[in-house]
NADH-ubiquinone oxidoreductase chain 4L (Ignisphaera aggregans), 135 residues
Amino acid sequence: MDMIKLCLNLLAISIITNILLAVYGVVKRPSMIKKIIALDMLNNSICILVTYIGYIGIGSVPPVYMSHDDKTLELLILRAVDPLPQALIVTAIVINLSITLFLCVLTLQIYRVAKTTNIHSILRQRELLEELSGG
């Protein structure tokens, strides 16, 4: 049983480390492609974390009520996995897919215009355009 707790703790530590690395990638990387990858990594890590939080323990069974016996119902209540985090994760995955697709299309359009995905270069080009236009 101690080995199972150790593995679950290592999983929690690795999830939190992954979240911190993803936040670092979103904040510090100038490339928009890397920012999109970091955002996707952040969302997936948070989804895993929510699933981990909703997990009760080893030997869990899905919440399916099969008989009218009180003992079976008590066993189900003690060992069932919470379905609410799972439903929220499915919704979050669909939303993440649409946002990632939108950001990829937006980045592609920016690349077609600016010929780069580096945010610093894009801002410099914008400043030069504003100076040339007299504004």
